[in-house]
Write a structure and sequence with these properties.
Elements: H1 15-27, H2 32-47, E1 52-55, E2 58-61, H3 67-86, H4 91-108, H5 110-114, H6 116-130, E3 140-141, H7 145-149, E4 154-155
Antiparallel strand pairs: 1-2, 3-4
C-alpha cells in the first residue's frame, strides 16, 4: 500500500488511532527514515568527544582538540535530519551534506563516533538522496476498506483504446496505366 492509497480515517478509530494514522500519513509524505537516521548518527559524533567514562576509580576523558568540530558536525547532522522532515524538497542537499559530514567526522571525531555515527550517516545520506515522493495512483475499485488497507484491492486503470494500424489500400485508379491485365 502506498501513501496515495492509504485510508486516513477508518470508522471507529479512537483518539490514539487517529493520531497514529495522522502520523503515518505525515511520515509517508517525506523522507522520515533518512532524517531519523541522520539525527541518530549525529548523537554519537556529538557525545563521545565530551564523554567522561568511569572505569572503577579511573576517569577516562575523550576530550580532543577537535571537540568543537565534533560538536559542529553532530549538530549539523541532526539539523539536516530534521530539515529533511519539514522541507522534503531539500532532501538531496541534506543527503549529500550528511554523507560529507559523516566522512569528515572520521578524522575529526574519534573515527566518526567509533564507526556508529559514520555508518548511520552514510546510510541516512543514501536514504535521503534516494527518497522520492509518490505519484498519485488510481483509486481502489470495489473491495472493502480492509482490502485497500492491506493492498489487496484492485485498482482502476484509465481506459485503453486500441490503436488500429493504417491499412495500405490501392485503388484501380492508382494502378500503373502501362500494366496489362
Amino acid at each position: 500500500m502506498s501513501s496515495a492509497t492509504a485510508i486516513e480515517w477508518p470508522e471507529g478509530a479512537s483518539g490514539f488511532g487517529r493520531l497514529r494514522l495522522r502520523f503515518r500519513a505525515w511520515r509517508r509524505t517525506r523522507p522520515f527514515w533518512g532524517g531519523l537516521l541522520a539525527v541518530i548518527a549525529g548523537l554519537p559524533i556529538l557525545y563521545f568527544p565530551y564523554a567522561n567514562l568511569q572505569l572503577g576509580q579511573l576517569t577516562v576523558t575523550m576530550a580532543t582538540t577537535a571537540g568543537a568540530g565534533s560538536m559542529l558536525i553532530g549538530l549539523l547532522m541532526m539539523t539536516l535530519g530534521v530539515t529533511s522532515w519539514f522541507q522534503p524538497l531539500v532532501r538531496i542537499f541534506c543527503g549529500v551534506a550528511v554523507t560529507i559530514l559523516s566522512l569528515v567526522s572520521v578524522p575529526v571525531s574519534n573515527l566518526g563516533g567509533f564507526g556508529v555515527g559514520l555508518i548511520l550517516g552514510l546510510v541516512s545520506g543514501g536514504l535521503l538522496c534516494a527518497w522520492a515522493p509518490l505519484k498519485q495512483s488510481a483509486a481502489p475499485v470495489g473491495g472493502s476498506a480492509e482490502a485497500a488497507e492491506h493492498g489487496t484491492a484492485e485498482y482502476a486503470a484509465a481506459p485503453v483504446e486500441p490503436v488500429q494500424a493504417a491499412q495500405p489500400t490501392v485503388s484501380v485508379e492508382q494502378a500503373d496505366p502501362g500494366e496489362q491485365r
